[in-house]
C-alpha cells in the first residue's frame, strides 16, 4: 500500500465577470456559506471578498469580485482595481457569464485571451432560465471567442447545478503549495465587514434607482457580549434628500432596513443582535478619494 501523504495543494481562484451574472451566488454555493451579499441589482459587490475552502490536503481561496464595468466615477475605479488585482494573483480563473449576456467586444475577454498560463474555466450561469438550444448557442459562442478556456461549462449557481463539477475542475488545477491562511479561516474580512454588507444588501433590496448606489455603511461599534452583539452602524448618503428617503415617513423605511438586517445578522453570527442605525450625509463620497479610503476602497 502506498502510505506517502498526498501533496498539499493550495491556490487562488478568481471569480470574475460582468455585473449581475451570479458571481456572488456562485461563491456562496461553492463555499456552502452566505459570505457575499446577493441582490437583483447590478454592482452589488464592491470589494474583493475571499472565501477560503479548507480540506485536509487542499486550501482553495476564492475571490468574489465586483462586476466588470467601464468606470464612471472614483468608486468604480477602486472596484475595478479589486478585479484586476485578483486576476494577477489567480491560479485559476472562473469567468462567469450568463445566458442573458449580450456580447460586445469587451476588454476583459481580450485580456483573458492573453492569459495563456492561467487555466480559465468559463461558466455559463442561469441555465435554469434557458432552454437547451439557448444554452448550446452560448457554449458554442464562448468556445469560439475564448478558445484558450480550459473548460466551458453550463451551470445554475442558484440551483447548485454543476457546482460540484466546478469544484472538481478547480481542485484538478490547483498547484502543489502549502496553505496560505490558517486552516480554520473562512475569509479575510472581519465580522464588521459582513455586518455592514448585510445592511447594504437590505438597502439594495428596499430602495430604488440611484439611492442604493449612493449608500455606504460603516459599523462604528461592534461589541460582542456573551449572549448578544451590540452594534452601532451609520448609513452614509451623498445628499440630504437621500437621507430623507432612507429614513422614510416616521422612520418606517429605516426601521425595515434595521429589522431585516438584524434578522440576517442573527442567523450569520448565531447570536442575538442589538442594532442601532444612524444616517449621515457625506457629500459625494463616491468621487472623493479621502472618503473612499476611509471606507476601505484602497488596496
Ligand atoms: N435564475 C437564476 N438566477 C441567478 C442564478 N445565479 C444568480 N442569480 C440571480 O442573479 C442576480 C445577481 O446575482 P449575484 O450573485 O448578486 O450576481 P453578481 O455577479 O455577484 O453581481 P454583482 O456583484 O453586481 O457584480 C440575483 O438576483 C441572483 O439571485 C442562477 O443560476 N439562476
Ligand atoms: Mg456580487
TrEMBL record:
A GO molecular function assigned to this protein is: ribosomal small subunit binding
Q: Where is this region: G1?
A: 17-24
Annotated GTP binding sites: 17-24, 64-68, 125-128
Top-level taxon of origin: Bacteria
Q: Pfam families this protein is in?
A: KH_2, MMR_HSR1
- Annotated region G3: where? 64-67
Task: Note down the stretches annotated as region G5.
Answer: 155-157
Q: Does the keyword Oxidoreductase apply?
A: no
Q: How does it sit in the membrane?
A: Peripheral membrane protein
Q: Which CDD domains match?
A: Era, KH-II_Era
Chief localization: cytoplasm
Q: Does the keyword Lyase apply?
A: no
Q: Region (G2) spans which residues?
A: 43-47
What positions does the domain Era-type G occupy?
Answer: 9-176
Entries under PROSITE patterns matching the protein:
G_ERA, KH_TYPE_2
GO biological processes: ribosomal small subunit assembly
Q: Can you cite an annotated GO cellular component?
A: plasma membrane
Keywords from UniProt, A to Z, are: Cell membrane, Cytoplasm, GTP-binding, Membrane, Nucleotide-binding, Ribosome biogenesis, RNA-binding, rRNA-binding
Positions of the UniProt region annotated as G4: 125-128
Q: Which Gene3D superfamilies match?
A: 3.30.300.20, P-loop containing nucleotide triphosphate hydrolases (3.40.50.300)
Free-text function comment from the UniProt entry: An essential GTPase that binds both GDP and GTP, with rapid nucleotide exchange. Plays a role in 16S rRNA processing and 30S ribosomal subunit biogenesis and possibly also in cell cycle regulation and energy metabolism.
Q: Which HAMAP family match?
A: GTPase_Era
Assembly behavior: Monomer.
Could you tell me what this protein is called? GTPase Era
> Lineage of the source organism?
Bacteria, Pseudomonadati, Bacteroidota, Cytophagia, Cytophagales
